[in-house]
Design brief:
Blueprint (H helix, E strand, L loop, with lengths): L9 H6 L8 E5 L3 H12 L3 E5 L6 H9 L3 E3 L5 H5 L3 E4 L8 H8 L4 E2 L1 H6 L5 E6 L4 H14 L4 E5 L5 H7 L4 E5 L2 H5 L8 E4 L14 H9 L10 E5 L3 H8 L6 E5 L8 E5 L2 E5 L4 E5 L8 H16 L4 H10 L8 E6 L2 E5 L6 H9 L5 E5 L12 H7 E7 L4 H7 L5 E5 L2 H11 L5 E4 L12 H13 L2
Parallel strand pairs: 1-2, 1-4, 2-3, 4-5, 6-8, 6-9, 7-8, 9-10, 10-11, 16-20, 17-18, 17-20, 18-19
Antiparallel strand pairs: 12-13, 13-14, 15-16
Helix pairs in contact: 2-8, 7-12, 7-13, 17-18
Length: 465
Amino acid sequence: MAYEPRMTNKNEISNLNHSPKGSRIAILGAGESGVGAAYLAQQQGYDVFVSDFGAVAPHYKDHLLKWNISLEENGHTEAEILAAVEVIKSPGIPDKAPIIKKIREKGIPVISEIEFAGRYTNAKIIGITGSNGKTTTTSLIYFILKNAGLNIGLAGNIGKSFAYQVATENFDSYVLELSSFMLDDMYRFKVDIAVLLNITPDHLDRYDYKMENYAASKFRITQNQRADDVFIYCADDMETIKGMEDRSFNAKLYPFSIEKKVTTGADLENDNIVINTPQEHFEMSITELALQGKHNIYNSMASGIVAKVLELRNDTLRDSLATFKNIEHRLEFVGKISGISFINDSKATNVNSTWYALESMTSDVVLILGGVDKGNDYLMLRDLVKQKVKAIVCLGRDNQRIHDAFEDDVDIIVNTTSASDAVQAAYHLATKGDTVLLSPACASFDLFKNYEDRGNQFKAAVKEL
């Protein structure tokens, strides 16, 4: 039987979206999503209580105080939270957190900010999920639709919170980056155009270390879709195809592939992306794409199908695919010094992301790897490392697993514990024509605040060379 995370109490589900105004809504987590949800809930007439187990960032605290919204930090007052008719929780809070267990024991519905905000907008929703490429593809779709003149918002796991934009803007459509954690707490929310890029092992600690549980979370993006909706997916991704075998879909299906011919959807023919929908046809050489590399062909295909489903003009789509600039910290070109290129891919926090980065490299690479290892299986990197990597610079407190994985494949592996030292070491190991690639395959919080901090310190160190 397919795994269905979250609520099992049917009364909880039936109570969703039926809370009377003036009722207490508790919001756990005072980050971007929590603060946005608090503002929207107050606007809709709810009694709002925000609780964060840790310290709240000053700018978020200032917003909540300005709006006269009740806030506590550095701990949870259970009585205040359990008085709520509904709880909106941050995606980062796991189900095993004690406060979540107590909320569920009391039968109080727990939902995401996305679920809550969706009640108060009739905008068309384009939702993107997948283990890798979500942010790039979400940003590319937004760029294409914005260039086409659509009145469109960008939210989810990127930018301003969906709830805050629903409260303050009047967009006709939204492009939402949806993580598995967000999808877990979504029930009635409907995505009009759903994109599933791929499913590879990630965050398995949140899914009982079972791949089928993680996959089930990703497929929640298709729940509630109807016959006039669209589901876009990668026909080359084994886990996606496996997951589709025991599921039924109401929406129109649009696969994309670089390995096989696709009748309706997108495929690769003579190095041209070819997109066919019932009313539309589009072709573009992969050499003209702004985003290069095999993984970015997939991202461009998925984005192009969205554009053609919406019947955007071919010249608008072609111009957007050719001129898009990638997001910060995702294969971001930093500069060239002494003929050595420096690329910041700090957002690569798992092995799959680093594989995609290496796959796109066309020169010899000095690879900066390391950080907080989430149980990484480095085996999938070995062939690319043998082909392309001349040296590895470890950036982390514990680098032993990297040494063990690659000591037979790379002649030089060195240890560093700061971005500055890593950049200096990589610079001295590289020669003219090489690329220094920061693509850590690990989380960042052993030495940095987050992946952005790691990427920014890397860029600053490059500029100091």
